[in-house]
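User: Please predict structures.

Assistant: First:
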Amino acid sequence: MFIFLWVQDELSYDRFNANADKIYRITAKLSDVEAAVTPPPLAAAIDAEIPAIEKATRLIPLHKMITAGTEKFNEKNIYCADTNFLKIFSYPLLEGNLSVALSSPEAVVLTEATAKKYFRSAEAAMGKTIYIDNDITGTSLTVTGVLRNIPSNSHLQFDLLLSTKLYDRMGNAGVWDNYAAYVYFRLDDNFKATPDAINAMERQINAIKNKSDQSGTHSSLSIQALTDIHLRSNFMLDVGGQGNSRQVTIFSLVAVFILLIACINFMNLSTAISSQRAKEVGMRKTVGAQKRQLIFQFMSESVMLCFISLAVAVTLMVLLLPVFNQLASKSISLHLLDMKTVAALLGTAVVVGVISGSYPAFILSSFEIQKTLKGVQASANGKRSYINGLIVLQFAISVILMISTLVVYLQLQFIKNRNIGFDKDNLLYVQMPQVGDLKDNKDVLNAMLSQHPDLGDYTIADHLPTYLTTGAPLQWPGMDPQKQVMASRLRTDENFIKTFGMQLIAGRFFSDDFKADDSSYVVNETALKSMGMPMAVAIGKKIIMNESEGTIIGVVKDFNFKPIQQPIEPLLIRNNFVGGYLVMRTSSDNVPHVVEQIKEVFGSIYGDYPFSYGFVNEDLSMLYVTERRMGKLFTVFSVLSIIIATLGLFGLTTYAVQKRTKEIGIRKVLGASVSGVITLLSKDFIKLVLIATVIAVPIAW
């Protein structure tokens, strides 16, 4: 039941939207990189030129500092949205008017939780002013709407919505080579979304893009159904918290395996003790009971037992649901008044009861009257072979789950301990404000930190090298004009290599002694391989990124700057002339001292701007939350299946011992030892478990 609810929740994502089956998203493939973002002008272009598209809308993610009253908030879940966004998606307003909520560049829509955080209530928030980036000198926005809190089964999770008119006012409206927007559209009700029709629409969208985009960036656009985004999205730059369709399949199989093992236990034990009901069967047949009536009786008993089990299970589930939600990081609720849920549970109980009671029912109903009334037991050979086969099957399943659990554990350990190309431990970071003159702030920060010689090595980079998302086409003299290589980009200073403990394998890194380094590049090994450029001749070669030509001065050994499930991509590093993140090497025993000193320096430069810090290894760990969660759930369910299988074997062993009580007594009288008796009773079961292991290991492999 827990797995059923988990799977049901995973499959329910975004289906709360009205006409969810009519809503789609556009994704892009640039070179070998598949991304969830597309150019911002695309939405208006397809809306105007494709009649089958009723509405198209954009979402552009932002990370801003918000000032509300006298308080400042570092908000990461912000989107700029088109006016029609709330008409495509079903995020109902508690306060405000749907048609005008995002119509002004100075408009902002809050969620109910955010409104309460800023102004104590949704009603009080309406008409209030907040500021982005800074207080009175920043951009002022007026609260024009308050949304209900976003459902947990929405792939989009946000706290504030700004108008894209504000984004367009910054000069981004017509930029076709800036892949920064999530573009969604709703199809006309008369459009039949067959595979051929969707493919034809993809060709239309690509033709529009190719006609409008004069930047020279080659990309191929695809259409993705809204209801597929959560489970079937492995795109770069996608929204966070995505699921995995394979996990749904795996856990569904685990649920089937657990039920199957429990059924096997019931069938084995019922068959084993069937001889105890032989006289009952004989008497019933004598007074006129037919075989089908006996089958119905025994299967009814099995189904009734399942209903009793279901009632106990529901009770336990209500009590344990908070624990399960914490383990699975969900907010699942059990709706016992929902007819679909009730039907699914009752249907499962009936199916399990019929399956588990079928063989014992047929065995019992087939006993002959004369033999059963005389106390003559039917041949047990058939029953023994049947029971042994089921024992092998259930333990084969358990061994497969045990090995799978071990593999999941080893993979999690691999993720945790793998050498990613730099020393991730004890790296503390502080995000610098994204307002004001960043270059001067960076220089002042460097100057003030140099007055604290007891601090460790530090560097300033525009992004943390944990999940880089910025990139552009890489060009070089003599490249094939039909080829396109997308490279990630990082800006940092001369201390980057030393602070992160990376390895420079050719040339040199940036230095204040070389003023020309502002136009130089350091590349990784993969970038050289993509260009077909031998390392021996790479230093001094010219390359171009974003129409900015520079010289390669060094080559850094490959390191993971994205989750390790993704292959290492080409990377270009440039000298950092702006701010971003201050990253400092610390030790575990001096973190409080370092934080206090940085906070003092930070306050003297940035005033009352909120100070917060984090650790690189914790950010890396957060990239694999889904994997760790799956590992925990898989371990719990696998252990449960093993316990159930063992309980069945324990029951059969207990029954076997009870049948052989006199034999055991005689053997002990004749001098048999306890160990000898244990060996006698367990050797047959051990053989079956060994056979199951031999069968299971290659399947698990």
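Second:
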Amino acid sequence: MVRTSAAVLLSLILVVVTMQSFTFAAPDSMNGQGNQMMLASNGKGKYGVFVSSNADAIERHAAQELVNYLTQVTGAPFQLSEGTTPPAGPLFVVGRNALTENLIPELAGDSLGVDGFVIRAAQRYIIIAGSDPRGTMYGVNYFLDYYVGVKWYSPSYTFVPTNPNLRLRVTNDVQVPRFEYREMYVNDGNNEQYRAHNLLNGKYRDRSIHVPQSEPWLDSWSSYWPYDVHNFKKIVPQTQYHHGNQLLAMNESVRSIAAGNLVQLITQRVNEGKDASYGFSQEDTTWNPDPDSLAFANQHGGSLAAPVMDMVGDIATRVKTEIPDARTGTLAYMFTEEAPTGMTLPDNVVITFAPIYKDHGRALNDPKNSFSKANIEQWAQMSDHILFWDYIMDFSGGGYLMPYPSLYAMSETIQYLATLPAVKGYFGEHIVGNTAPISTGLTDLRAWVGARLLWNPDQDYRELIDEFVNGYYGDAAPYISQYITLLHEAFEQSDSTLTISTPITSPFLSFDLMRQIDGLFDQAVAATNDPVSLNHVQRTRIEVDYTILMRYVDYMSEARKRNIQWDPDYDNRYARFKTYTADIINYKSKGTMESLYRLIDIRRTLPTIPDFVSGLPDSDWIDFQDHMFWLYEPAGTTLVSDAAASDQAAAKVKGSTNQWAIQLHDTVLPREGQWKLYANVRVDPGTGSPGTIAFNYGFNSPSGGGRTSMDYAHVADGAYSFVEFPWVYEYNPNQPNRYFWLAPPNSSAIANLYVDRIIAVRQ
């Protein structure tokens, strides 16, 4: 058990006392009705806990947890008994049995579903029971949380209040979650109990990575979401039926083979005691459809989802004739996100709607996400079984450690989805794999708030944020609250977009914002001497330190332009950063902490000002240094120290590749005006000669673009020189993903290509 400081403890006890006067979800309790129960007085327990001898492992464990936490809270030794008949005296009765079925008729029906439960005072009993053991488990966890005040804030931190005189009001509290499937996919290791405590029932991690089997008292995860994704070629392995990265969707042989193989896979699952479902969905890439599939798409609004869904629906119907309760899962994702017209789907198909290209910093029903909003509403007209896959973390840009203001958007998205009856599940993806950080930044906050909204989306998410912050950060809470507010306001007021690859150089992470919030964390650290709360503050501060360490030269340049005295305190900041990231394996997908440390170890200096812009106003030119580039890492592209570069660092790639290895994307380019770009480039000479290509460079755009090359003779001396891109750039919101690129010649003409910076000059 871990406790916060005295001030925060007092505030949480007051919250608990308030909750003892009513329960949030029961209408009669809101009017002050219900029975006042004295559970403990002066450290003496007034109630026992009873569980039937016929109870399973889940119900027994739930009853034992009730005993353990009530004992911790009150200091009273609550006793657990089991048998066929409850003993005398006041009792908690945990689980469904003959007694509770008699007192709570709802347990025998289907109104509670698998996860719902009832907390009810009847005769001398307080009954906590669901129709299913999982519902009983959630009932006990809910009771300890909402009634008693135990808070499972993170995988490693639980707040347990102290109250030797525990009195609370128990009424007729009937709880059924809004979403049938609920998962916040965070890196909580194997702490499944943390997820169950917070009423989450998803276990996606077993789909992608083998982990130890759940303990018997937790092995009751939802089977609503069919197993496996991105498996077209696995289900139909014959290559003659593969086309354009996917399948020949309208081909009868494809459908017959897929149906037969799915029947076998589902039968095997049933024989193993698992649910009768399996996924059948597109590969995680694009599709160049065959003529028959394209023709079918054109008959249904031009959506490539049409032939895919026709195929999946047909196959699901065939499988169901062999296995009546079989369900098939598939994706509305990337090229299938757009809903087709004039189609319906069989009731045994579960659609996972995964709008990976939406702005994850804004709610699904925000005008900037109108495309995805319109599509999910159309899908909801076609199917009653939709699961929403949300992306609430950066995977491959700035990575897991960068400030990522998705908290408000996530909360509002969940609340909007709750208005669509067809949406039965939610999957909030924080990580790729299981090597992402644990409890850094705002990860624990997002997971906790998301879990509560998935159970009851009618709660005020701002109040939930405040509750978590007060309980998790102790005396530092006011400063963390300001940080959360400022971060989200800065994003909202910017023209930035949150994607799964948002760069650390995004404009919303401005010098003014980072300087202000860095000061807030200084105050947060000074405000608390409690080591637990202090650790939470420092683990959250990781994302601030990371941003400043990666961008300190940018910020120093800004300070120089504005005559502001600012010291990044680089050495002390880096030492603190390494202390609190020592347990982290990957800071982004496929990016190790060791590789990040090597990047930070490249000590930069304030860059020189190029002669050709020295007389221009600061507003008319922009210096994009190498850390603002997107680097194609599979080709070995990396950042290196380079004494010849303007800031002592550059992007480097070997000459024996033709990849567009170094790119500057429109996510960081100006949003107004017309600009010419100039790259500062040098090479390590190889076997090239005048007339051979030293490197290629160009501009990529959905509407065209172009490419050109540099003659070896112009760079043979190995010195840096500026190369003009022969295009004028102007931002176009209707053409995303435009970028400038440089690529080696894929020859021995040069040994290595270096790019120091790219200068943009207003036209």
